[in-house]
User: Which sequence fits this backbone?
């Protein structure tokens, strides 16, 4: 159940109650694609940096270690020793990103595993079955994620098929949640809005899928190559047509700037690989923009990554030491940077929630964007 606690313009401050705990929104979901954060962070680490939600990927867990094995071992929460809510992506984005290896049909998609090349079929029912075996808190509907700048002639039938697939997802999840052997009988389904960068298609699709009365809705198919201006334009157009009393999730976004702009336009949930990926390459986030620790000016710099940060990395280690670790290709350097970056994003969301609680989000957003710009 979603509680809308406060609004400031279109920005929402909410609370989402799930079988695995309450999520305070807006929230950033830390991406653990194969049930692990790239950068050697443990579940205990995630708890220390105030992670609220972990995101894992259906396709990757299906091909390795296998969703049936995860079910045998008690579900993903048990498998990775996680007591937080877990959201699983449907696998659709990964399937469609393997463009040279897949074939789309009404029943689903035929494709080859990127691990061993074996032939796999995934449709709405299969995606729901895999996610039910994984026993995540929130399951995403199986949809087609079309190319960012696809033409209308491609987008329209693609969106219509996504709607038909959503109905099949909903029917299959209802069936699975009523089986005795299902681990999480309260698993929730989020639908996904598609439509490329065409406002009218997006709006019409939002009107159709909101009638499914699902626990939450995502905006998909953005942050895949279109401009930031197009992304914000689509959000301004489509979010008002999604239920305000349900969480809204912008998939695969993004940078701190993207998050601030999207919160202002009514988004509750975010996820992105950037903080972990950038951290592994020595790029760290601060309130004054990104720092590249490979720059020589940090060679003898004994300051923490950020004086304002209370993460475990900044409380103990210097820029000089972390730079040395990165140059020496020691895994600890990557780990410390990823820890800092994920803490930064989690703390940014906490500050956004506090600003919304106080009715000062507009001023907070302006202050943060100015800080990033001045770097």
Assistant:
């Amino acid at each position: 159940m979603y509680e809308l606690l406060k609004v400031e313009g279109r920005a929402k401050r909410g609370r989402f109650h799930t079988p695995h705990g309450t999520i305070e929104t807006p929230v950033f979901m830390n991406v653990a694609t194969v049930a692990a954060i790239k950068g050697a962070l443990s579940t205990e680490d995630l708890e220390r940096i105030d992670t609220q939600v972990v995101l894992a990927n259906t396709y990757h867990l299906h091909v390795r270690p296998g969703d049936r094995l995860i079910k045998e071992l008690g579900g993903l929460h048990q498998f990775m020793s996680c007591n937080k809510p877990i959201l699983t992506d449907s696998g659709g984005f990964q399937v469609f990103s393997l463009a040279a290896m897949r074939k789309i049909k009404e029943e689903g998609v035929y494709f080859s595993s990127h691990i061993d090349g074996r032939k796999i079929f995934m449709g709405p029912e299969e995606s729901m079955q895999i996610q039910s075996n994984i026993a995540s808190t929130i399951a995403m509907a199986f949809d087609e994620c079309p190319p960012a700048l696809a033409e209308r002639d491609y987008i329209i039938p693609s969106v219509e098929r996504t709607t038909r697939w959503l109905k099949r997802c909903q029917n299959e999840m209802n069936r699975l949640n009523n089986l005795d052997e299902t681990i999480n009988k309260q698993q929730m389904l989020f639908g996904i809005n598609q439509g490329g960068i065409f406002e009218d298609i997006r709006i019409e699709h939002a009107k159709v899928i909101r009638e499914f009365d699902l626990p939450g809705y995502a905006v998909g198919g953005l942050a895949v190559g279109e401009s930031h201006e197009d992304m914000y334009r689509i959000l301004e157009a489509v979010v008002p047509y999604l239920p305000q009393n349900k969480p809204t999730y912008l998939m695969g976004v993004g940078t701190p700037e993207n998050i601030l702009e999207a919160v202002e336009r009514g988004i509750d949930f975010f996820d992105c690989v950037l903080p972990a990926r950038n951290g592994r390459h020595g790029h760290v986030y601060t309130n004054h923009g990104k720092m590249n620790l490979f720059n020589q000016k940090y060679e003898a710099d004994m300051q923490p990554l950020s004086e304002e940060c209370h993460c475990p990395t900044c409380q103990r280690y210097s820029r000089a030491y972390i730079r040395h670790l990165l140059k020496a290709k020691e895994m600890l350097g990557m780990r410390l940077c990823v820890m800092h970056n994920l803490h930064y994003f989690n703390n940014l969301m906490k500050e956004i929630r506090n600003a919304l609680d106080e009715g000062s989000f507009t001023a907070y957003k302006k202050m943060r964007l100015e800080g990033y710009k001045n770097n």
In short: Residues 71 and 133 are 5 Å apart (CA to CA). Residues 2-272 form a domain with the TIM Barrel fold (CATH 3.20.20.105).
